Amino acid sequence: MSKPAIDPVIHPLARLKICAALYHGGAVEKQSSRFEMRFSTLKDKVNLSDSALSKQLPTLEEHGYVTRFREYGSSRAKDTVWVTLTATGAQAFERHTAALREIAGG
Predict the structure, then answer these.
(1) Half-sphere exposure (CA, 13 Å, Cβ side) for 90?
(2) pLDDT value at residue 31
(3) What is the pLDDT along the chain (106 residues), one digit of tens a residue?
(4) Disulfide: which of 32, 60, 69, 85 matches 22 by Cβ 3.0-4.6 Å?
(5) From residue 29, how far is each of 22, 24, 34, 64, 91 by CA, in Å?
(6) Rounded CA gap, 18 and 22, in Å?
């Protein structure tokens, strides 16, 4: 089995915090179900502005680590954006954190 490696997509602190918040918040795609986290909740958990969070999500999406969808309200201000860590993203996060633990000595 190969040693876990740092994932350059997840490694920037903002993206690591996003993946960690989704993973530990249970917003992870499972085999038989899917759980999401509201964009606003995620923003609060990772302490990022709307624009900073919005700038990080496309990179995670491009690599298949997260998905998001918009639930339309009666106006754009009432729309809800939901974010999910994909199964691929969860596996990448687990490998990345294992690599960090190995570097830290345990």
Answers:
(1) 16
(2) 62
(3) 567 789 999 999 999 999 999 999 999 998 666 789 999 999 999 999 999 999 999 999 999 999 999 888 777 677 888 999 999 999 999 999 999 999 888 6
(4) 85
(5) 10, 12, 4, 12, 11
(6) 6
Task: Return the amino acid letter for 103.
Answer: I
Q: Where are the alpha helices (DSSP H) in the chain?
A: 13-24, 39-46, 50-62, 87-104
Angle between helices 50-62 and 13-24 (to 10 degrees): 80
Tell me, what amino acid is at 67?
A: T
What does the alpha-carbon distance between residue 7 and residue 22 come to, in Å, rounded to a whole number?
A: 17
For residue 35, give the 3-state DSSP assignment.
Answer: coil
CA neighbours closer than 13 Å in the CB half-sphere of residue 75? 1
